[in-house]
Amino acid sequence: MKAKSPAAWEHVQLAAKLADLKDDHYRTVLTLSAMLELFIEKGILTREELSAKADELDAQLESLISASLHPMA
Its domain of life (predicted)? Predict the structure, then answer.
């Protein structure tokens, strides 16, 4: 039986790493979602406050990205 080529084995390893990252991402999002729901249930923040803050942070990030792509603009 022929041994696997190094390139094929690297693809297998890369796929495994990607699967691990996907699982980590899912668990992180799940934990954050649970925390936010608890904060809302306990009256620490409202969905409207959360949405407004997310919009604010998104706009800041977009501005930073735009500035880094077009530094002289």
Answer: Bacteria
